[in-house]
């Protein structure tokens, strides 16, 4: 009986050690390293406006049309809000122009979760434009989730470029 208890105890200890070695919770240091990156690593650019009804956005080409997000977030940063205010002014002055807001996510997470996250991000941009006075009827929201990456790779630099909304 004593031998059998020792054997079960050893098996349970081994299984506990094995399971705890497989799980990671990440430290605060790991979490901050995966969610922040130097600002010079993220660039903005223009996006093609083909297949969008109406005319092209007439705002200055230096105004961002791609808006980036933090990991697992759908909150606009100050830079994005400033650019969107300029787009909102132009869109209010040109009510016949329709735009498409395409939400994207990086490859982490399930396909379904990333589709929903891309939609939340695009809706975040849409809601901001509505608050700025743009007619909701001229905006279309679509999510591509992780299906249309801007950058290939499984590293923070690539993931940061894939967490975006493109205004077309």
Automatic annotation (TrEMBL):
Database matches in PROSITE patterns: OMPA_1, OMPA_2, PROKAR_LIPOPROTEIN
Leader sequence segment: 1-25
Transmembrane stretches, start-end: none
Gene Ontology biological process terms in this record: cell division
Comp. bias (Low complexity): 39-49
Compositional bias per record (Polar residues), positions renumbered to this chain: 27-38
Domain of life: Bacteria
Keyword terms: Cell cycle, Cell division, Cell outer membrane, Lipoprotein, Membrane, Palmitate, Signal
Any Pfam family: OmpA
Region described as Disordered: spans on this chain: 27-49
InterPro entries the UniProt entry points to: Bact_OuterMem_StrucFunc, OMP_bac, OmpA-like, OMPA-like_CS, OmpA-like_sf, Pal, Pal_lipo_C
Keyword Transferase: no
Presence of keyword Lipoprotein: yes
Membrane topology, record value: Lipid-anchor
GO cellular component: a single term: cell outer membrane
Family: Belongs to the Pal lipoprotein family.
Function: Part of the Tol-Pal system, which plays a role in outer membrane invagination during cell division and is important for maintaining outer membrane integrity.
Subunit structure: The Tol-Pal system is composed of five core proteins: the inner membrane proteins TolA, TolQ and TolR, the periplasmic protein TolB and the outer membrane protein Pal. They form a network linking the inner and outer membranes and the peptidoglycan layer.
Full protein name: Peptidoglycan-associated lipoprotein
Organism per entry: Porticoccus litoralis
Gene that encodes it: pal
């Amino acid at each position: 009986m004593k031998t059998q208890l020792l054997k079960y105890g050893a098996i349970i200890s081994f299984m506990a050690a094995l399971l705890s070695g497989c799980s990671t919770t990440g430290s605060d240091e790991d979490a901050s390293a995966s969610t922040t990156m130097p600002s010079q690593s993220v660039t903005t650019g223009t996006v093609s406006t083909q297949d969008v009804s109406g005319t092209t956005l007439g705002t200055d080409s230096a105004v961002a049309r791609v808006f980036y997000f933090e990991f697992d977030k759908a909150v606009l940063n100050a830079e994005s809000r400033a650019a969107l205010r300029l787009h909102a002014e132009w869109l209010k002055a040109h009510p016949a122009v329709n735009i498409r807001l395409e939400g994207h996510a990086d490859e982490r997470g399930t396909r379904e979760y990333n589709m929903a996250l891309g939609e939340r991000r695009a809706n975040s941009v849409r809601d901001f434009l509505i608050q700025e006075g743009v007619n909701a009827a001229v905006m279309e929201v679509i999510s591509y989730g992780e299906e249309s990456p801007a950058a290939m790779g499984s590293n923070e630099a690539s993931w940061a470029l894939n967490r975006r909304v493109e205004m077309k």
